[in-house]
Amino acid sequence: MSRTIKLAVIPGDGIGPEVVAEAVKVLGAVTARDDVTIDTSMFHLGAARFLETGDVLTDADLASIQEHDAILLGAVGGVPGDPRLKNANIERGLLLGLRFALDHYVNLRPCTIYPGVTSPLAAPGVVDFVVVREGTEGPYVGNGGAIRRGTAQEVANEVSVNTAYGVERVVRYAFEVAQSRERKRLTLVHKTNVLVFAGSLWQRIVNEVAVEYPRVAVDYLHVDAATIFFVTNPSRFDVLVTDNLFGDILTDLAAAISGGIGLAASGNINPTGHFPSMFEPVHGSAPDIAGQQLADPTAAILSVALLLDHLGLPDAAARVNVAVADDLRRRSTLERRSTAEVGDAIVTLLTD
Amino acid sequence: MSRTIKLAVIPGDGIGPEVVAEAVKVLGAVTARDDVTIDTSMFHLGAARFLETGDVLTDADLASIQEHDAILLGAVGGVPGDPRLKNANIERGLLLGLRFALDHYVNLRPCTIYPGVTSPLAAPGVVDFVVVREGTEGPYVGNGGAIRRGTAQEVANEVSVNTAYGVERVVRYAFEVAQSRERKRLTLVHKTNVLVFAGSLWQRIVNEVAVEYPRVAVDYLHVDAATIFFVTNPSRFDVLVTDNLFGDILTDLAAAISGGIGLAASGNINPTGHFPSMFEPVHGSAPDIAGQQLADPTAAILSVALLLDHLGLPDAAARVNVAVADDLRRRSTLERRSTAEVGDAIVTLLTD
Ligand SMILES: CC(C)[C@H](C(=O)O)[C@@H](O)C(=O)O
Ligand SMILES: CC(C)[C@H](C(=O)O)[C@@H](O)C(=O)O
């Protein structure tokens, strides 16, 4: 039975277009044998678009993106310090704009140290965990304000908003992920000893949902202690569930220990399917190396695996993961390759 | 000229009393030759006290602590999961209670990889930086609340409060520290791209104060990116200044990369001298190994060096640091020593 996937592609800025080109190439190659057609529409969004038109994300953009089954995003953000972008904050306007508008309440970020990849840790052990970061609440809601701005009497507040509704749905998702994995272990990360209100909500919901998942072993770590284990014993983790800000911090750390941000994939997921989910490498637009075929497209390609999984094509997802793992295993023996050469090599591994 | 230092000692719970005993021993030994007398008063505070009396920190405790020149604290906190401590939160009540009551707006946490100490990083390089963490504002103010608690409609908020007054005084302190160091480099860590109100206050104050310190080179990192550098290139850091919560997270990570929480010292400082400052190891009370002479007193002893520095005895502080460094250098060749043996060895190095 043939199937057409309508994919909104946002190449973005800097190295975004280069890595997305490889990701789309891999997506086409891996789905060819499944009788799946990828119907891509390109969206010109990001710093370049803002500089041309003054728009970050219009209602028309949003409406048109929503007609797709999924979104693949490269990276957005202009050259740091560009005065024309001073108050624009493209990353926030666009990434958070899409995550909130499309209710991407699960921000899924796997962390694996692939064989052949060098970790900055001396003895990382076998590392293969997933961070389930909440995507639509916490300190990210934009609920802040300041009075007496610019004066010596300024007071600037930021409000972290946490709802039982919002926490429960992401916690449930995390339990499902944990239950589907071999080790079936879920770690809640928060700072319940200081953020007592948000913390007790998170802890209560985890305790309540845990009753429905008796096979999942649950534990808790304060976020500060969690960072210690990330560098001293990352093997201890299987699935982590945490709030938007803690998840932001922990997943960059996770990317660092597993060989760098060039390998870290992510999914911004609305599991209900009411909105298209968005898949993107965790890295930024790296304008300093843009347009030179220097960027590593692996994170974008691994994001394609997450996309395929989400769209109900787990076999194709697994094939991408295996091809990437194969490529990474041989990488240390190879000369430095261009962005396209890495994509081509993975396509070859897929189609051999 | 002889001098008497009135020291409030809070041994606390778990391993606290053991490590504090060594710290006091070292303090006595290092100041003996300076004609300084240490007049210690013991304060019975922590989980044990709470279980006996129901009090965490009374007004009388506070008033009496305030009559001292400085505070040395071991560690507080009962056995995790002890039902009698369920809602007590000793750490918060006592540590944060003292930090806020005594206006400890500078939380100073040095991070050094000492020669001879094994870092979990494969190639850490030379690491010697200081985190200046704000201690009296941010998400730690306890300004949160919840409605419809325990229901599916619960909303739990946490407010991060940041004032120009509070940010400026800690930023100034950080510039002073940076200016006094060889590399004269200060990194502001925040999340200005998301926490735009608090972030722009921090960024503005740093920009303004920087004008007065033309010899200090300033840069900025988002907290997520900072964690990456902590594991990939910690040598890049000299002085960091950051908010209370980011500082909490980053300093545990810093402790981890520099050989563990057993070596991490901290000062909770009120630089005005209007209140006694408090020095404590970053580690917790570790009830599982308490009373067995298994704890490493090094972090408590290094906290004594910070205390001496704060009290205007930098030579004595330097002697403690040198003795600890000597001890750490030989440590890998030695059998495992008891808590007291480590303290004794450092005293011997000091008095030789
Ligand atoms: C760019 C920024 C708004 C974003 C975030 O904080 O979520 C990024 O760091 C990420 O993790 O995707
Ligand atoms: C125990 C806790 C309240 C404390 C904090 O969060 O500040 C601790 O983690 C620390 O860093 O001293």
TrEMBL record, chains A, B:
- Main localization is cytoplasm
Binding site residues for NAD(+): G284, S285, A286, P287, D288, I289, A290, G291, Q292, Q293, L294, A295, D296
Binding, substrate: R99, R109, R133, D224
List the PROSITE patterns hit by this protein, alphabetically. Answer: IDH_IMDH
**One MF term in the entry's GO annotations:** 3-isopropylmalate dehydrogenase activity
Co-factor binding details = Binds 1 Mg(2+) or Mn(2+) ion per subunit.
Recite the UniProt keywords alphabetically.
Amino-acid biosynthesis, Branched-chain amino acid biosynthesis, Cytoplasm, Leucine biosynthesis, Magnesium, Manganese, Metal-binding, NAD, Oxidoreductase
Record pathway: Amino-acid biosynthesis; L-leucine biosynthesis; L-leucine from 3-methyl-2-oxobutanoate: step 3/4
The residues that the entry says bind Mg(2+) are D224, D248, D252
Cellular component aspect of the GO annotation: cytoplasm
NAD as UniProt keyword: yes
Q: Which residues form the Isopropylmalate dehydrogenase-like domain?
A: 6-346
Compartments annotated for it: namely: Cytoplasm
User: Entry's Pfam families?
Assistant: Iso_dh
Q: A single GO BP annotation from the record?
A: L-leucine biosynthetic process
Cofactor(s) needed by this chain: Mn(2+); Mg(2+)
Q: What EC class does the entry list?
A: oxidoreductase
Provide the site residues for: Important for catalysis.
Y140, K191
Q: Which reaction does it catalyse?
A: (2R,3S)-3-isopropylmalate + NAD(+) = 4-methyl-2-oxopentanoate + CO2 + NADH
Write down the InterPro entries for this protein, in alphabetical order. ICDH/IPMDH (IPR050501), IsoCit/isopropylmalate_DH_CS (IPR019818), IsoPropMal-DH-like_dom (IPR024084), LeuB_actb (IPR023698)
Q: What is its EC number?
A: 1.1.1.85
Q: What does this protein do?
A: Catalyzes the oxidation of 3-carboxy-2-hydroxy-4-methylpentanoate (3-isopropylmalate) to 3-carboxy-4-methyl-2-oxopentanoate. The product decarboxylates to 4-methyl-2 oxopentanoate.
Subunit composition and interactions: Homodimer.
What's this protein's family per the entry? Answer: Belongs to the isocitrate and isopropylmalate dehydrogenases family. LeuB type 2 subfamily.
Protein's UniProt name = 3-isopropylmalate dehydrogenase
